[in-house]
Amino acid sequence: MADRDGVIWMDGELVPWRDARIHVLTHTLHYGLGVFEGIRAYHTDQGPAVFRLPEHVRRFFDSAKILGMTLPWSQVEVAEACRQAVRENGLKSAYIRPMAFYGAEGMGLRADNLQVHLIIAAWEWGSYLGAENIERGIRVRTSSFARHHVNVTMCRAKANGHYINSMLALQEAVACGYDEALLLDTDGFVAEGSGENFFLVRDGVIHTPELASALAGVTRDAVMTLAREAGYEIRERRITRDEVYVCDEAFFTGTAAEVTPIRELDDRPIGEGRRGPVTADLQERFFAQVEGRREAHPEWLTPVA
Ligand code: PMP
Q1: Residue of the nearest CA to atom 12 in ligand 1?
Q2: Which family does it belong to (predicted)?
Q3: Which of 74, 105, 123 is the last residue of a domain?
């Protein structure tokens, strides 16, 4: 990943990809206190366009605020830098990764002279959970690791350190032969995947966990909006693991995962063990939307050029 051509936006400058380095005493590397985003730009007839850029940038600033980190840029500047990172790398479609972190100006938890640095990288990234799984669906395992408690880490923040929990869960699921983990909250209710929000469908009604220990996903919000506009009823509420076993359809949403059907949980087929009609319908609406093939919500696409 480090050894490739291209440029990375680093503290306001475009640095050759291979030279975008940091010191080993970088504070965030030691303690995990940093914030990041995952954003996609899609190929559209009007050229590459970033999906819901202002919403992602806003969450980035919210995350920083929650962690008490002051970002020395405006939201407009960060949004512009994201567009620049896609443009300067000549990408037709992209995954964009802004990250703000504390530098190596001091060490220890009490360091008070730390500078906040910002990098924005962009590269081509296909289907995160496998192109074939967008149609076939994935096999999921309930994790033995609970999702964050709201008062242990701050779940609204997309913070670097939170992903220890995600990676423990994902490593366990993959080692056991599954594609992804489903994490329950500390009360035992369904929270989310390691990097995705969760939905189920039963009798035509869509259900998704309330935003307590799950991240406020931008894709979650987009899919809920598209679903409501298509006339589906959506209920946000606590969901139990056995409800998932007996639902008709289930799927994950996320910037990386997009809309990915779940065909199995804990070796029990979901519905008929393949993508269901509601999931397929929402996928169609979602992909048409992000690729600029729908007239609704033009405000969700920000051209890169
Ligand atoms: N939950 C977690 C833990 C995530 O990392 C992500 C990816 N950012 C999501 C949910 C989905 O959020 P979004 O749709 O904004 O990418």
Answers
A1: 217
A2: Belongs to the class-IV pyridoxal-phosphate-dependent aminotransferase family.
A3: 123
* Phi/psi at 59 (5° precision): -65, -35
* Cα–ligand 1 centroid distance for 219 (angstroms): 8
Q: Measured in angstroms, how far is the CA atom of residue 37 from the centroid of ligand 1?
A: 9
User: CA 145, 147, 152, 158: dihedral to nearest 10 degrees?
Assistant: 130
User: 282 is in which domain, residue-wise?
Assistant: 133-290
Kindly report the CATH number assigned to the domain that includes residue 212: 3.20.10.10
Task: Identify the burial level of 125 via C-beta atoms within 10 angstroms of its C-beta, where 0-12 means exposed, 13-18 middle and 19 or more buried.
Answer: middle
ipTM: 0.99
Same domain, 96 and 191: no
pTM of the model: 0.98
Known active-site residue 158: yes
Indicate the number of domains in the chain.
Answer: 2
Which residue's alpha carbon is nearest to atom 6 within ligand 1?
195
Residue pLDDT, tens place only, 96-154: 999 999 999 999 999 999 999 999 999 999 888 888 999 999 999 999 999 999 999 99
Q: Which of 158, 162, 207, 285 is catalytic?
A: 158
